Amino acid sequence: MPNQQLKVGLVQQAVANDDKAVNWQRSADKVTELAEQGCELVMLQELHSTLYFCQQENPDFFDLAEPIPGPATEYFADLAKRLNIVLITSLFEKRGSGLYHNTAVVFDRAEGMVGKYRKMHIPDDPGFYEKFYFTPGDLGFEPIQTSVGKLGVLVCWDQWYPEAARLMAMAGADMLFYPTAIGWDKTDTVEEQQRQFNAWQTIQRGHAVANSLPVVVANRTGFEASPVAGDPGIQFWGQSFIAGPQGEILAQASSEKEEILVVELDMARTESVKRMWPYFRDRRIEAYGDLTKRWRD
């Protein structure tokens, strides 16, 4: 069972270069600050070690990947141990020659690495050419058991799929977590930018509501120029947030600043909400078979 009162934190950062040592230290400084404020559980954003390299298809960028276990897991395992916290990180995993994943890794205090999740849904859109780099995950939607509860960890594009959140909840997740790297095309109008952000936040708040679980979302911020001449680059829209089990916003960061967020979650209230809104009791599972089909013809 999770702690009845659990202080959680997240880090929202900009990334300026591919110097992993510098980026890890900058993240560690923020994680340390959160631990000093009493956070027992901290999450970093998606692919926080380097620039968002998926703006183009370039085989040289596979050199940024590393094995698990490897230097990154050693670094963050030590950080979690020193600070006595649970830490959620996001890495470009080299699983084998020619086989790579976008992988979240969880560390639990002195226990070290206690689990990982490989991103299941892989986008392929202008500026987000992830299918070139990442093989879809093969670990399923399994929560990771830690000293503070069972964590349903998903990654970025997974956040648009209610099936992923539901399956994590059905497997007993106490909370849902989304390390994310999403932003605007610089040519989008202000109105289009607002529509995109509203959709992004709304669907994740919907996962909180539909599953009666807190949702924690750590997004990237800052502008990253495209390495492709003529491409507009990405303005990552930040606005990381933490929502309660009824989708209520408990904390939200700004769009352009590096920030940390801290919230004390009342896990007893989460249980109370589940009892008041028994969605899982009323699911008509005998009628849902077509959900495993690509389309209903």
List the helices and strands and how they pair.
Elements lengths: L4 E8 L7 H17 L4 E3 L27 H13 L2 E11 L2 E10 L4 E6 L25 E3 L2 E5 L8 H9 L4 E6 L2 E3 L4 H22 L3 E5 L1 E4 L9 E4 L3 E3 L5 E4 L6 E8 H10 L21
Parallel strand pairs: 1-2, 2-3, 7-8, 8-10
Antiparallel strand pairs: 1-15, 3-4, 4-5, 6-7, 9-12, 10-13, 11-12, 13-14
Helix pairs in contact: 1-2, 3-4
Structural commentary:
By secondary structure, this protein is α/β, with parallel strands linked by helices. The protein has one domain (5-284): Nitrilase/N-carbamoyl-D-aminoacid amidohydrolase (4-Layer Sandwich). It has helices at 20-36, 71-83, 162-170, 190-211, 267-276; strands at residues 5-12, 41-43, 86-96, 99-108, 113-118, 144-146, 149-153, 175-180, 183-185, 215-219, 221-224, 234-237, 241-243, 249-252, 259-266. It has a six-stranded mixed sheet. Helix 3 runs parallel beside helix 4 (190-211). The longest helix has 22 residues, at 190-211. The N and C termini lie far apart (43 Å).
List keywords for this structure.
297 residues; 24% helix; alpha/beta; 28% strand; 6-stranded mixed sheet; 15 strands; Nitrilase/N-carbamoyl-D-aminoacid amidohydrolase
Summarize the structure.
This protein has helices at residues 20-36, 71-83, 162-170, 190-211, 267-276, and strands at 5-12, 41-43, 86-96, 99-108, 113-118, 144-146, 149-153, 175-180, 183-185, 215-219, 221-224, 234-237, 241-243, 249-252, 259-266. By secondary structure, the protein is of the alpha/beta class.
